[in-house]
Amino acid sequence: MWGEGMNFSAIGSRIKELRKALKLSQVELAKDICTQAQISKIEKGDVFPYASTLYLISQRLGVDVNYFFDIGTTPRLDYVQEVVRQLTRTRRNSDYLGMDEIVKAEEKNPLFRQNNKNYQVLLWHKGISTYMLHKDVNRSIEILTQAISITHVLDKIWSEREIEVLLSMGSVYFEEKEYEKALEVNFRAKQYIHQLPFLQDNTLFCRLYYNVARSLTRVGRFSESIEYCREGIKWCIEKDNLYLLGELHYHIGYNLEIQGLNKEAAQYMEKSLAIFELQEDKKYITYIKGKIGSL
Asked: How many domains does the chain have?
């Protein structure tokens, strides 16, 4: 059964746009799925497609079926997606002023305010910028907790987005040097990730392993930290994902350096340097070159 508030006309219009972009006729799109007449009615918004039919159509058009559910429930989905992309960019570039500006600009926008999932994204980034710009720990944790509660229903079931917000809470505790709290939050996140049937965002594991590894180092658990880094590197390689690969190699080197194993440390830092140079990430290159020289 379809949920209330689903805009079938918007779904039909987007199916038509994608079909034409791929230069498919209605007959070609309908083949082995339904009739051409059915496709015509769906594109006009005259009929409600079965979920199974919509899934098969999405597969033929090369998009995730959730794309159509989002279109059907979110007006101006393209605008919302662009805002989310901008927020993601500010987060990865540590541009907290830019993040704060976007949140303030969109906070009263009905596209976000009247949609829990969209508003959750704003609150998540508001919680991050509140800490990074003002160092207000209590307010930041309060906002991040609120962001989770907007969509969280069952304690046993956590969505990817809710887990991401939880990881941000762990990062706040880490920055405050409350390493045991950070570990507690990250280990909870690890438990919830393992309960997910599948991951849409493969960087989630990388972030988790790196966050855990950093906290373990700060409490003197160097061997465990290295193990988590190795697991993160293995995951990156399996998923053909460079995200945090350089940081994970560097952190192994850092653990080895602390233990006085300078030769081994330099080897991992050189691997890290090669990855950052490949990514043209200039933030760390000069610093790591200096570390290798000192080792």
From this structure: 1
